[in-house]
What does this fold into?
Amino acid sequence: MGVGFGLNYQPEEIYDVIVIGAGPSGSTAAIYTARAGLKTLVLYRAEADGALGVTQKIENYPGVPGPLSGFDLLKIMREQAKSFGAQFVRGKVIATDFSEEVKKVFTIDGREFRGKAVIVASGAMERANKFKGEEEFLGRGVSYCGVCDAAFFKDQPVAVIGEDDYGIEEAEFIARFASKVYFVVPGSKIKAPPEIIEEFESLKNVEILLRHRVLEIVGDQLVKGLKLKDVANQEEKLLEVNGVFIFLGGTKPSVDFLMGQVDMTEGDCIVERGDDDLRPWSFRSWRCSLHQYKTGCDSRRGRL
Ligand SMILES: Cc1cc2nc3c(=O)[nH]c(=O)nc-3n(C[C@H](O)[C@H](O)[C@H](O)COP(=O)(O)OP(=O)(O)OC[C@H]3O[C@@H](n4cnc5c(N)ncnc54)[C@H](O)[C@@H]3O)c2cc1C
It folds into this structure.
């Protein structure tokens, strides 16, 4: 997983800029801020995550002759930002506190980062709908965090519902504890670089179930199983598992961690009213934002 910090990790550092997201927007922002001499931290969820990270083949990016994978293109962008001094740290942001001059950004594994300015570049890949049983069993077997909860399932079977590198990275960590990990993929393939998938497939206690639609998470007080439908033959099956970890993407802007501190539209796009109104410490990248006076927002993708 590459997360090497304890739950109470609190860096002393106060960054000039914290960028949330390491896709094209976040990396571009970091190139500019770091090059301008600002101490820049970029937080991201997984290596090959985000809309570009999951793209298999690019051959039309100016100046970069392809074909190459989205992940490889991302690596180039990130290296460019790092060359100017930007620091990239893996960590899913779950909360922010913008109430004081020094802003706080909290990650799901309990770390707190502090910065004078925050740039939101977290894209638009959040899920809008939940599975049957997901809310009922949240915290009672359903989890969204491997680092936080995997240890509770030592020597027990679990299901991990995922589709990309973000899901794989989490599942690899969970597989260090669980007796068996069923990696349930709703689609026909995993959207991650082949080398990452190969390494994942080689884990002895992992079984990958492609084309399996989730029907329901079942249990009594705690999770007891996951009902699935195998789309290939329409057969229903029940996986007997004690835990269900969910790492799926969608098309909603990924901005839950802003917690109402920034004006949002109903579709969860960040509203920018105009330069006069833009708070001096808060910037947004285009994918999860809406410029009120310019154009509309595609409610599915948060796109300008
Ligand atoms: C198959 C496909 C093909 C495409 N083809 C093209 C094309 O040809 N041309 C084109 O211009 N565009 C294309 N796009 C769209 C393009 O990939 C996106 O517009 C672009 O990636 C958006 O960049 P972004 O940085 O805003 O978001 P993303 O690339 O989605 O990056 C989001 C970043 O935020 C991070 N993140 C999200 N939530 C959190 C959190 N809570 N905490 C920490 N980090 C978080 C992620 O880890 C990721 O690093 C394509 C997209 C897809 C899926």
Q: What stands out?
A: The helical segments are 24-35, 50-53, 70-83, 146-149, 165-174, 194-201.
